[in-house]
Every structure is written in C-alpha cells, then in structure tokens.
Amino acid sequence: MLLESISRRALLLILYACFVANSFASSTPDRRKVRAGSTSQAQTAAPRRMQLQGPQQHPPTRTYDVLHYLIRTRFDVPQKTVIGDVTVTLKPLAEGFSSFALDASDMRIESVTLSPSGAQLRWSQPPDKLLIDLDRSLGPNDSLSVRIRYRATPRRGLFFVPAKPDRTFSKPAHIWTQGEPEDNHRWFPCYDYPDDKATTEQYITTGATEIAISNGALAETTTNPDGTRTFHWVMQQPHSTYLTSLVVGDYVKLTDAYEKVPLEYYTYHGTEKTALRAFSETPEMMRLFTRVLNYDYPYQKYAQTIVSAYFFGGMENITATTHSDSEILAPGDELPDATSELISHELSHSWFGDLVTCKSWKELWLHEGFATFMEAVFKEHKEGRDAYMLQMRENERLYQLEDQSRYRRPIVFDRYRHPAELFDATLYQKGGFILHMLRETVGDEIFWKSLNKYLDEHKYGNVETADLQRAFERTSGKRLDWFFDQWVYKAGYPELRVRHTYQPGSKQLTLTVEQTQAPDAMTPAVFRLPVEIEIATASGTRTERIEINSRTQVFNFRLDSKPLMIRFDKRASIIKKLSFPQPESMVAYQLSHSTDALGRMQAAQTLARIRSRRNQAASSGRVAANSVRLNP
C-alpha cells in the first residue's frame, strides 16, 4: 500500500485514521496517523518523541488452515448492502477439532451449513466473530467445507461510491474494497490475519453495464435472466486474506502486455488517454524488477483499476492493484513523478507482500520498506544514480522529521492499538533507507542474489525479518546480526559530531568522530557504522573506508598536501545527523568538484547557510554601529 503523499494525501490519511480509530476504539478518538513530512497541525502540535501507545500485540492462535474461499456476492446499492454466500474449505491443525471461529463484522448471518450435504450447523455471533460448532470432532487428516449465507452492511472494508459529474468526464458509481490491514471480514467471513494463505474464487454479480475486476484470471462472464451479469474470477495461488478484492463499475478496459503477462488497465470513460499515459511504464517496471530480482512476475495477469474517494495512493491487491483516481488522472502532458512512484511501488508488492507476506503486522516493513526502496530502484534505472540518491535523501529527511516531531519506534514494533497506526514514515521511508544501507554494506551482487534467495525460499509463504537476515548471511557468508539489531530491532539513528585538523609538517589529517545521540531503551549508545571518507588534495581524490564502533574515535590519514575537500559518508550509506563544520573554501571546492549531485547539493546548502549567517552578522553590526551614532 502506498500512503498518499504530503499535503492533500496527508489530510485524507488523517481522516481515514480518525474513521478507523473511532470505529475500533471510541474511547480514544484523539489518535491520529499522519504521513511524515506533513505540516498539518496534528503533527506539529505533537510532543517531541511521544510513544505509540497500546498493548503488546500477538498473532491470533490458529487452529485451522484455510485452503480455499469460494465467494459469491451481489449488491443492494441503495441500502449499501452486500448479499453474500461464502464457502470456506479448511483443514484442522490438531486432533479434537470440533468448533472454530471466523472473523465476521457488520453482517447478519442467515445460515451456516456443511457443504455439499447442506446439513445445518449450530453457530453464534460473539463480537466481530462467527463461531461455528461441528457435528463431530475432526483431525489434521480431515478437511471440511462450510457454507455461510449472510447480508453485510460494512462500515469499512467495502465502499459504495455514488456517481459524480466532472467538468471533463463523469465518474461512474462504483464499489471498491480495501482489506488491509484487517477489514475484509466486514464483507465476507474469513480468517483476517496475514499468517494464513488460501486460494480464492469469486462470483461477482453486477448491473448490466458494469464489470467486476478481481484477483486472478477471469474464467467466465455470464448474462443472467434478469439482465445482470456475473463475473467468475479464479486466483490459483494462495494469498493472505487482506489481498482479496473486488471493484464493480462502468469501466473501460485498456490492454497491454509484458512478454506473456497480460496487463489490464481499468479507467473511466473519457479518460483513456490520461490513464494509458499513467500506466505506460508498467511493462518497463515489470521487466526491471524481473531482471534485478532474477525472479519472474509470479502471477497470471496484472490489473490496475482506478477508484474515487480512496483513502490511499494505491493498494497491492494480488494481481489487481487499486489506485486513487486523483493519482492516476493527473492533469498536464507530463507524467508526474508521484504517479510513476505509485505505479512502481504497488507493482513491486507483487514480490514483496503478495508472494512473500509478513507473519504478523509488526513485520510490515518487509512489504512497505521494500516497495519504497523499489520505487528508488526504478528511478535509478530511469534517471541514474543521482536520482536514486536524491530520493534516498528525501526518505531520510521524511523519516527524521517524524522522529523529531512525533515519536521514535523500532521498525519491528508490536505495541499498538490497531495495525493502521504502523503505517508511518518509520515503516516506509526508514524501511526503504535500511535496504539501501544493506545494499551498501554487502555490495550490489550479493544484495540482489540474497533477495532472489529470500523470494525463492519463501514463495507463497509467510516471513519475518529473521528470514531476510538468514538469506543475506548465507549468500554473503557474513554475520549481520549487528546490522539488523541496530537498524531494525532498535530505534533512532546516530548523531555524529565530526572535527578535522591538518598538520602541515607531518602532512597528517586527523578526524575525530563522536556519537552524541542520547541512548535509551530503544536507541543504541553506539552504532556500528562502516563509512567512506572522500579526501581531495592538489594531486587528486582518494577514498578511505573506516568503521566507527565507539562513542569517540580518532582516525589519522597521511596526505601529500593539505585537504581541499573532505566528504564524510560520501555514498550516504547511513542514516545520520551530522555536524561537520568546514571552512568556506573547502565547501566551495566540493560544490565545484563533487562528481555526484548529492555532494553538490549538500555543498550548496552549506554555503547558503554560511553566507546567510555572515549577512545577518554584518547587518547586526550595521544596526549596532548606527545605534552608537544615533545615541552618543
């Protein structure tokens, strides 16, 4: 899922977070979840580094494995009601299996029967559950299918959007779902947690002029005697329930392809040209991700559909991504960067999130951190290394803004009241930068080989951070517990005070590096930091590699003449706050001689600050002098 970007996107996200918070915990209506980088009052008024509040969360205890969901839906649009008929096929995980519960909210159950016999089963509805009693006890060698007929009026999870005229085109009435994190059980009974995967099959009945878009391949379309149509979609590969989706509306279908993979784009009538422009890079993105991961796109098709009144930028529903129409139907002739980032973000979830899925929400960075990182990988492919590094710099800035003005938390974090609270800049921007740091630590070749191993070993399964770490350690032959401990399981980042001196007689450059961050239960007193130092002298430029592993360290370098430029962490391979004062001459040299855009940008910003302070000081001096003359 991609949260919509700063300003308008942050406002929509605040409204949705309020909606979620009021729905699941009316006693705590003050909770907000704001995208980092927003300047909204909700964020700037927050205390510095408050803590996310909530109990420690644990995955539910599983007593069964769902094998398949057969979902039949039709809709009473005026009443905003889903008329559903779902058959759940499952296997017990232990002996003595005589009852089980499904997640089910906002619905009135009409009947629960065994399938195919039709035998009635006893059932009850405790809060947000459907509890079913079986007529006998089963074990792991057994399987059963239970059919549930119901009517649902969802408060979340499925939305009925009325038609809306526009100056250039009309938005049709449509229906769309949003399951992540745990809202699909509001429109069909299911096990609504990511640690179980099942195949799905949907029969979706629509109006005569409408179509239904869903997961997998379209097996059949049937015209019914009453003029309605039923679309039969089959998803053959197992997936977590939150990825199950449907969209119903009067759409135009546009087609494309990447090699043998059909690509489908669904948009409103009259918007075909704009939508096709927005989606046009999809084949190139799929080609790039397939190549760098050395892993083919794993499904039978890939569809992208726009919807209105959407709370997010996009959602990676398996094989059938949903996008906000405001992100896709951008005005103008040029494709906005934000649109390209959205398309690549959601496509990359096909590997990171859909193919391999987190075991619990606390591990969600394995989805969103990767998708944020892969946005930058596509930008690197398209625009070069400078564009990639500038995006990483922006990721660092947005994360640090959240850390400084809102709260600090580890990437893997299990204390919250609702998993929606985890969708923040720590998850997305810091998660993406951590993968950049891992790439810098092990090198490009090992990095991509490790990701291939990770995907291949855990395809169609569930993962946690330890699985990613093992894949990198086995591929690289290196112990990486230090890396994952300080960047994933702990919080914060190093705050570095760097000072330099040069002795002309001995031609020795000395760098003194202090870690000044305030340690606490989450933040390490000492980070282990492999860093590159670029040093330029009259005879040329050289790069020194150092490792910082103490609170204070001194590094000495023999030079041939005085340094003209010193760049600390040239490759921007660590998240940090850096204090490294240098004379204006060295900064100016960096501006004119740096070989990368990030170095030039950093130098330009530093020079601007130096000259602004000088001008302010000069202005203050003039005011003081005038005051003396006017007041002898």
How would you portray this structure in words?
This protein has 632 residues and is an alpha+beta fold. 31% of the residues lie in helices and 30% in strands. It has 14 helices and 28 strands. It has a 7-stranded mixed β-sheet, with no helix packed on it. It has a 5-stranded mixed β-sheet with strand order 15-16-17-19-18. Helix 7 crosses helix 9 and helix 10 (444-458) crosses helix 11 (465-476). The longest helix is centred in the C-terminal third of the chain and has 34 residues, at 597-630. The chain is elongated, with a radius of gyration of 28 Å.
Keywords:
632 residues, alpha+beta, 7-stranded mixed β-sheet, 5-stranded mixed β-sheet, 14 helices, 30% strand, disordered C terminus
Largest sheet: 7 strands, mixed
Strand content: 25-35%
Unreliable runs = 5-47, 625-632
The dominant shape is elongated
Strands of the biggest beta sheet: in what spatial order? Answer: 4-7-2-1-10-13-12
User: Total number of helical segments?
Assistant: 14
Rg over CA atoms? 28 Å
Distance between the termini: 68 Å
Average predicted confidence as pLDDT: 91
**Can you count the beta strands?**
28
Helix amount = 25-40%
Secondary structural class = alpha+beta
Short précis:
The protein is α+β, with helices and mostly antiparallel strands and 632 residues long.
